[in-house]
Structure prediction request, 356 residues.
Amino acid sequence: MVLLGSTGSIGVATLDVARTFGLGVEMLVAGRNIELLQRQVEEFRPQIVVVAREEDRSRIQAPTVLSGEEGILHALEMAQSSLVVNALVGFLGLRPTLKAIELGKRVALANKETLVVAGKFIDTSRITPIDSEHFALWYILQGRGDYTSLTITASGGALRDWPLERLAQASFEEALNHPNWSMGAKITIDSATMVNKLFELLEAYWLFGTDRIDALIEPSSLVHALVEFRDGSLLLHASRADMRLPIAYALLGRLHQRVVEPLDLTRVSLSFAPIDPRRYPIWQIKDELLRRPELGVVVNAANEVAIERFKQGELGFLEIAQCIIEAFDRFHHQRVDSLETLFHIDREVRSYVACC
Prediction:
């Protein structure tokens, strides 16, 4: 396989699955965690490695070492593997997905921004989602049709139990204190603002071809998705929150052995709650975004810049959503009719939110 984003949480879990099932790794792509990357190179012996910075190339011992986004695209052309696992974070993951599909490769996709931004231009028949929620929907829907609605679940994020009046004072570090797991900074902040779940609704729109999709808060993160059928029955998918399960299915297609420990239902307590726009103001644009899903490029660009400004102390926590909503309103008239237009809008939104 080719693995983009090998040192992040999804990348590490992917390599654990590769280790368990004896899968080969032809190419690794990583950012600045060079020490971990070098350990991965020593264990998996990839032929091609791509690092973020040119100055780090000399620190990696591999047959071919490239750098930067152009390095990733060139390396994909060199790679013989038919499977690309894209676990890159943010807008950076879009061009590699487009290139992999252009080359006829299958993409196991954890980079949600690819579909959020450019789902209109992606051949989803070549995409296998790694997100636990979309994997769960796929798992439930196998061989079943005639559903009336799809629902994915949200943990509620680090601030889900805070008094509403305290949210405006939340610091970057406090928003990273997720109650259920430890993942990268951006996805953890996105969980706290509920932008992550908004993105996953857009992913589901493109993957399953429906706008009959919503989300609920399920604090234990054991139930990942629910499907309601026309006969009134409801099926849900529950498992431990372990990304190795959707990753293993994405890599292998079918499994005949245990990947995660089953749940002990006598120790499980489940509850569900609606997503409150007072706590998660971004939810105000959910319905309109599903009506205009091509505007995911606006939401993504605004979100990436707003999070960076929050990290730098230039914005408060609730101002992340405020900036996104303002950008969504300002660029609402935009028509995304080509990839060139998409990249232009991305640049325009980033410039606007940098000063909002």
Summary: The first helix runs from residue 9 to 21. The longest strand covers residues 147-154.
